[in-house]
Design a protein that fits this description.
Elements (H helix, E strand, L loop, with lengths): L5 H23 L3 H6 L1 H29 L7 H10 L8 H16 L6 H10 L1 H21 L3
Helix pairs in contact: 1-3, 1-7, 3-4, 3-5, 3-7, 4-5
């Protein structure tokens, strides 16, 4: 893949922006009660997580297409393929699959969103997004070096 693809680079930037926002929201949510009582904060967190996950999926789908990896059956499979192809570390896969499940919940079952689950992701799982972005960047660098970039 010559030069990191524009779509991937753009989505990595979007992901970084949303992670910055989520860290601000995490500081603002000093407790579950504070989080639960602030409707605007809850909605902002939910939307930021949704967009961050969508960016991860876009990156994955684009990389799969560019590299000619097998076609993903669904969102979870995007991350499965990236692990199979050693783009992302296997130990990150359970968290990534959970991201895909959460994205489906937030998009399709929005009336059933569990505030405690979202709060838990906000407080404990943001590093998974960073690990994903680092793995993608490292893969792009390896590919560029391998192809004389």
């Amino acid at each position: 893949m010559s030069d990191a693809d524009d779509v991937i680079v753009n989505r990595l930037k979007i992901l970084a922006e949303y992670m910055d926002e989520l860290r601000i929201y995490r500081e603002r949510a000093t407790s579950f009660r504070v989080y639960q009582d602030d409707k605007m904060l809850r909605r902002a967190v939910e939307r930021a997580l949704q967009v961050a996950i969508e960016a991860c999926l876009d990156i994955g789908r684009r990389l799969i297409a560019l590299e000619g990896f097998r076609y993903p059956e669904d969102n979870k499979d995007v991350f499965q393929i990236l692990a199979e192809e050693e783009v992302v570390p296997r130990q990150l896969l359970p968290s990534l699959i959970e991201m895909a499940r959460f994205r489906n919940l937030i998009v399709h079952d929005y009336a059933q969103i569990d505030d405690a689950r979202v709060y838990g992701i906000l407080k404990k799982r943001l590093d998974d997004f960073d690990a994903y972005a680092r793995a993608i960047a490292a893969y792009l660098e390896r590919e560029e070096r391998a192809h004389g970039g």
